[in-house]
Design brief:
about 260 residues; alpha/beta; 10-stranded mixed sheet
């Protein structure tokens, strides 16, 4: 991501939006020591940390939740906890956050810790000012505020966004998300420098493609629908649901399809 970019990661529910955002956190904070502010309006801090531990330690999240850990899970979790414990991540799980309150908190983190990335999960749960006439104006205000924050702090702001039901209504091969599906406001598309969609055919059709009879289990597409300063296209990833994480496919399994939107 470029500094001062507003990056939108959008998808229908259960596609893995938060999982992808947390993968970004892991990669940036653990591998590159990037200082990150994560504003979570949907999940609690404890839930996010649990997800990060399972994703980093490759431990089945269901086993952890149910208290049914295996002997080999404990050293994995201990290793993950060690890495996450020293990672420069600040999580704020305040509900109903306004852009103004977020700006104040982010500015303080920038001044005190020099954060280099802000992540918001998710945009539609933020609260706009009370004097807006409708939800569309409220989302437009929030979207503009996030772009302004990215410019003011000179850091990328990554915001998770819900999509409308339009992909399901189109059905079949036309279910892949497109820019017009961004929920409640064209302003999101306008303000964003980068828009990425997550699409998992398996969510609709099950683990086998009904047309080709080939396995699509775990197959996920990250579709770059807009990139102000670069190409659009589709990258195929492997979604490991039990660990709530995305991994790269090998070149043989899923090449990058340049230019496809």
């Amino acid at each position: 991501f470029q500094r001062s970019d507003l990056v939108i990661i959008a998808a229908r529910p259960s596609m893995g939006k938060t999982a992808l955002a947390l993968n970004i956190v892991q990669h940036a904070a653990i591998e590159h020591n990037t200082k990150i502010a994560f504003f979570s309006l949907e999940m609690s801090k404890d839930q996010l940390v649990q997800r990060l531990l399972c994703s980093e330690g490759l431990v089945d999240a269901q086993r952890l939740r149910r208290g049914q850990l295996r002997d080999d899970d404990y050293p994995k979790l201990a290793r993950a906890a060690g890495l996450l414990g020293t990672a420069p991540i600040w999580i704020d799980d305040s509900a109903s956050l306004t852009p103004l309150a977020m700006r104040s908190k982010a500015r303080r983190l920038k001044a005190e810790h020099d954060i280099a990335l802000v992540i918001v999960d998710y945009l539609q749960l933020m609260q706009g000012p009370g004097d807006v006439e409708n939800r569309q104006q409220e989302i437009s205000y929030i979207s503009r505020s996030l772009k302004a924050l990215a410019k003011e702090l000179d850091v990328p702001v990554v915001a998770i966004s819900q999509l409308s039901r339009a992909p399901e209504q189109r059905g079949g091969e036309h279910r892949r998300p497109q820019l017009s599906d961004l929920r409640e406001s064209g302003a999101i598309e306008q303000d964003a420098d980068v828009v990425c969609f997550i699409y998992r055919q398996e969510f609709y059709d099950g683990p086998v493609d009904p047309k080709t009879n080939e396995s699509i289990e775990g197959l996920a597409e990250v579709i770059v629908g807009k990139q102000r300063n670069g190409p659009t296209g589709t990258v195929k990833l492997h979604f490991k649901k039990e660990f709530t994480r995305f991994d790269n496919y090998t070149a043989r399994e899923a090449p990058i399809e340049a230019g496809r939107v």
